[in-house]
């Protein structure tokens, strides 16, 4: 008597059989069954977002790029300045930059508006070597007039070199970087709230 053959269950017709005739039924892919229990991989920030978070990278650059902070509290206070000495340093800085062919040299007064400096000088250089030379010459010439502690950030081929000279901070940019960060627009604008007009409350 011949052995009876099993009929395949509807919808599970095997596509392959083993050598002994037993059917092999393949599982449906998880995407088709709708029972995907795997945890989704955590979203990683895009490289462009990560770069935006990291740049500018130093606390001094971050403070400059953030612009003046609007606050209802007291304005930042700094030690009293020797204005004559400050003007001497500014003269040395601007003259040195001009000698190095810096473009569009701008000096801004930050008194009472920033906690990190009282003056800001911004200038443009066209090439890495020119900007590096500007920074080196500034350090040397300021040391000659008695300002020994000068910190330079980004002089190894950066689009933005910062020179911290205590009460004065100098920013040397390539043209595109200067336009991108626009420090003179942020720090040059007067952000103090105007005093109430004396005419308010009076009939015209």
Question: Could you characterize the architecture of this molecule?
Answer:
With 204 residues, the protein is α+β, with helices and mostly antiparallel strands. The chain has a domain of 100 residues: 2-Layer Sandwich (Beta Polymerase, domain 2). It contains seven helices and seven strands; from the N terminus they run E-E-H-H-H-H-E-E-H-E-E-E-H-H. It has a five-stranded mixed β-sheet. Strands 1-2 form a two-stranded antiparallel ribbon. A hairpin with a 5-residue loop joins strand 1 and strand 2. Helix 4 runs antiparallel to helix 5. The longest helix is centred in the middle third of the chain and has 17 residues. The chain is globular, with a radius of gyration of 34 Å. The termini are far apart. The C terminus is likely disordered.
Strand and helix map with partners:
Blueprint: E1 16-17, E2 23-24, H1 30-33, H2 47-54, H3 59-66, H4 83-99, E3 103-109, E4 119-124, H5 128-144, E5 151-153, E6 160-165, E7 168-173, H6 175-181, H7 183-188
Parallel strand pairs: 4-7
Antiparallel strand pairs: 1-2, 3-4, 5-6, 6-7
Helix pairs in contact: 4-5
């Amino acid at each position: 008597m011949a052995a009876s053959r099993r009929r395949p269950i509807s919808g599970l017709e095997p596509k392959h059989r083993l050598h002994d005739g037993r059917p092999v039924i393949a599982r449906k892919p998880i995407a088709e069954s709708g029972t995907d229990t795997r945890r989704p991989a955590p979203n990683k920030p895009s490289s462009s977002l990560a770069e935006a978070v990291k740049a500018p990278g130093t606390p001094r650059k971050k403070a400059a790029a953030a612009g003046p902070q609007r606050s209802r509290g007291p304005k930042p206070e700094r030690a009293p300045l020797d204005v004559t000495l400050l003007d001497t340093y500014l003269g040395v800085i601007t003259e040195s930059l001009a000698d190095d062919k810096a473009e569009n040299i701008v000096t801004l007064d930050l008194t009472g508006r920033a906690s990190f400096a009282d003056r800001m000088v911004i200038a443009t250089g066209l090439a890495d070597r020119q900007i590096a030379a500007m920074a080196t010459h500034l350090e040397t010439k300021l040391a000659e007039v008695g300002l020994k502690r000068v910190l330079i950030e980004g002089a190894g081929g950066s689009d933005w070199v910062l020179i911290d000279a205590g009460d004065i901070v100098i920013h040397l940019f390539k043209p595109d970087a200067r336009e991108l960060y626009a420090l003179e627009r942020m720090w040059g604008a007067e952000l103090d709230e105007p005093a109430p007009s004396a005419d308010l409350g009076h009939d015209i």
